[in-house]
Amino acid sequence: MFEIDKLEFVGREEHLNRIISLVQKTNTLHVVLVEGRGGIGKTWLLNELQNRLNQIQLVTSEIIDCDTPIFNDAEDLCTQIAKQLYDNTYQEWLLRLRQLREDENHLSEIAYQEERRQIEKFLVDEINRKSRQQRLVFLIDTVEKLGQPEIRAEVWEYIANLCQQLDNAVFIFAGRSSVARPILERSFKEEELTYFELNEFTHEDVQTYIISKEEQLHFNLGKDLVEKIIVLSGGSPIMIEFGVEYAYREVIPDWLESEDIETIPARLEKTGGFEAEMVRHITQLRTSMDRLTLLLSRIYPLDSYDIANLLELSLEDAEKLFIDAQSYFFIKPVMSGNQISLHDIVRDLVDKYVWTDIDPDLEWRKRDSRIAAKYFEQKDYQLGPQKRILEVQLSSDDSHKVANIEFLIEELKQLREFNTTRWLWNALYADLTTGFETWYKVTNTIRTQAKKISFVKQLLTLLKQFEKDLNPDQKLRLVIFESRIVHALKDKSTTEHEVKKLEGILSEQSSNSSHKADIYNVLGILNTKLHLYDEALKYQQECLSLVQGNRLSSAIPRVANQVGYLYRQLNKFNEAEKYYKLGWDAAMEVDIPDKGLTQVMASIQNNLGFLYGQQKDYVKAEQCFKAAIDMWSSVESEREIADAEIASAAILVDNGNYIKAKQLLERALSRCDNEENDNRILCRAYFQLGLNQWFSAEVVNEAVWDVTQVQWDLNLLSLAQDALEKSLKLADKYGLEEELPKILHQTASVYWHLGFQKCDRSLQEQALKLNDRSYQTSLEYNDMRYAIDSLVGKAEFDYYAKAYENISDYARELSDRFLSYQNTYQLYFGRILRIEGDVAFQQANYDLAFAKYAQGIPKIFQDGGFGPYSIQHELNLLQKKIERLPIELAKTLIQQLKHQWQDNKALKEWCDQQMFLTRIRATKQPSSHA
To answer: Which of 166, 445, 786, 887 has the highest CB neighbour count under 10 A?
Structure first.
C-alpha cells in the first residue's frame, strides 16, 4: 500500500458518500464525472473511493489512468476495461481489436462501422454478463488525455453510447475540464449522470489534512510552517503535499522556514510562485530521485529495466529506485503497477520551471532523448524475434493452445507499437534531421510491408508535434507521404482534395526540385485510383522522364510499368508493350536484383501476359504468366502468384478455355487463407470463376438464330451466380470500389439469364437494379468501360423483354455521352448496333437490320469479343438469321454486307461463304422468316 492510501481522507466526504450511495443502487447504470484543475485531488478521490468500496465488498476496477501515451482512441480505453473482466474476455477483445484495426483500410466504410459495432456489442455483452453476478464499478482517471486531440469528441460519443447499453454498472470519470461534460449531459438523463467539480480545500480541511500527514509520517511540522503552507498552498492538495512531504524529506527551501509569512509573497512574485519553488530543488540533482523525476517528465511510463538503461544504473539499484519512487505522492503506479509515471501537474511544473532553468538550449533533453532513442530502437529489434518465435509455436502447437498464443502475439504487437512510438518520438526530439530520416524509413516500411494504416496514422500524428520545426524539404516529403496514405484509403473526396493540393504544390516547385518526380508519381497513382487514366498517364510520363534524366535506375522499372498499365487501360496496346519492355530492359541492367526489383519484374511479365492475351496472342501470354509466377515464387509471394494465376485464367476465359481457367482459379483460391489480407485477390478470383461458369453454361444449339433463344445449363448458371455473389460481397465489404462496376454488371447478366429462362420476374428485377447500380457506380468512379457496358446491358435486357421502344434511347445516350470512347471500346458500340439490328429484324425491317449489322459487326470483329459476345458467336447468329430469309432477299442483303465490308478481308470471305451456302439452300426447300 502506497503512502497516499494511508492518509485520512478530508474535504470531499459529501462527494464520496454521494458516489458510494449511487454505487449501492443495483441494476442501474450510472455515470459520474468529476472535474477540477490539475492537482485538486481527483486521483486521491478515486483512490479513497476504491478503498472504501472494497471495505464494503464492492469490487472496483483498478484505476485506469489515461495519462499514458497508449490511449489514442476509444478502443484503447475499452482494452483496459476488458482487462477488468474475465481473462478470456480480454484475450478475445484484443484479438478482435487487432482485426478491426487491420480491417480499417481493407473494409468499406459501411462494413468497417458494422464490424466496429460488433466488437462494441461483444464488450457490452461481456460487461453485462459479469454485472449479472455483481455490480461493476470502473474508475477512470485523467480522462482529458483520452484520445488524440482531433478525435476527442468522437471518442466521448463512443463512450457515451457504450455506457448507455449497460445494465448494472457505474463509470466514474475524473479529469480536467474537457469536451466530456457537454457530451455526457446530452447523452444521459438527469438521474443517470452525476457531475462534481472539485474546488480548493477550506482552511479547516487543510489543517485536518496536515494533521493526518504528520501522523502518517510521524513528523511534526511546527505551527509556523503549518500556517505558511496553509496560506501559500491556496487550498490546493498537491501544493500541500509538496510543502509537507518536502519538509519531511528535508528538501524544503530555507526561506520557507526562516522568512516571515508577510515577506514571502514578494519573494515568490520574482520566482514564479509557490508551485515553482516546490519543484525548483530538482535543479540541484542531488539524488537519483531528482534524475528520475526529470526523466519521467519527458519519457513515461517506465519500468525498472527502462530506468536501469536510461539512467545507467545497475538493475538492482534501478529496482530499488523504482520501489522507493512510489513512496512519493507525485509518482503514480500505472499499467497494473508494472510501470510508474509522474503526476501530470508535476510533469507540467517540471517542464515549466525546472527544464527552462537547467536546460535553456535543450541540449540536456536532446542528450536524454538520444540515449532513449537508442535504447528503444534496440528494444524494438529485440521484440521482433520474440514475435516470430510465438508465430512458429502458433503453427506447430496443439489447437487448444492456439488462442493463448494468438493473444500473446497481439500483446507483443501492442508492446512493440508503443515502443516504436517512443523510439521515434525521442529520435525526432534528439535531432530533427536524422530523426526525420529514421521516422520516414520506419513509417514507410510499416506502410508498405506491414500495411498497418491505423498505426501509420498514429505515427503521422506523432510527427505533427514537430511539424513547425521541419525544414521546407522535410515538410514537402511529409505532404507527399500523407498523399500516399490517402491512396490506401477509400474516400473519393479525400483523394480528389489531395490531387488538388499536390497540383498546387507542383505549380510552386522549381524546375529542378528533387521531389518533382515523387509528386508526379503520387498524382499518377491518385488519378489512377479515380480512374482518370489520361491524367494519370500524363503525370506518370512526367515522372518517368525525370527519373530517366536523373539516372535513377532503380525507379525506372516501377514507373515504366505504371505507364504501361495506364496505356493498357486506355486500350493503346502497342504503347503499353513499349513501356513494359522499357521497364524490363532497365531492370535487366541490375546485376543482383533485390526482392523489390524482382517483384516489379514479375509484375511487368504478368502485365505483358495480360496484354498479349487481350491481343489474342495466347502462346506469348502463357509464357509471360509462367515467368511472372516463377519470379514471384522465388521470393515466396503467394499472393502475387495467385494474382498471376487469376490474370492467366481471365485470358483463358476470353479464349473459351474454360476447363483450364477453372483449374487455375481454384489453385489461386487455395493460396488465399486469410480473407482480410487476401480480399482483393479472392474478389477477383470469384469474379473470374463466375464468368467462367456463366460462359461455359451455354447449351450449344445450331438452330438458335436470336440471342433470346439461347439456353443455359441452370446448374452451371447457379454456380456462376454463387461465385459472383461472393465476389460482390467481398467488394462491398472491403470497399473494393474499382472492382464493383464489373461485378455488378456481370452479376446482373447472370441474374437476368436465370430469371429469363426460369420465368422468374423477381430475378430479372434484381438484375435491372444491379445493372443500374453498375452504371451509376461506373460514372461515379470514372470507369468508362463498364459505364458503356452496363448501358448496353440495359438495351440487351430490354430487347429480351421486348421493350423495343427503349433501345434507340440507349443508343442515343451511348453516342451523346460516350462517343469519344468509341475507338477504345468498339465491342460495345458494335453490340448496341447489333441489338438495334435485331430489333429491326424482329420487325421485319430487313434493310435497316442489315444496315445496322453492317456497321456493328466490324466493330465487334475488331475487338474479337468474348464468351457469348465473341465475334464467332455473333456471326453464327447472323448466319442463322440469313437462313430464315427468302433466297433472293438473303442474296441481296449479303451483297450489301460485302460491299460495306470491302476493307475487311475476313468478313468479305465470310460473306462469300454465306452466298455459297445460300445458293445451296436455293436448291432445297426455301425458308422464310417466321
So the answer is: 786
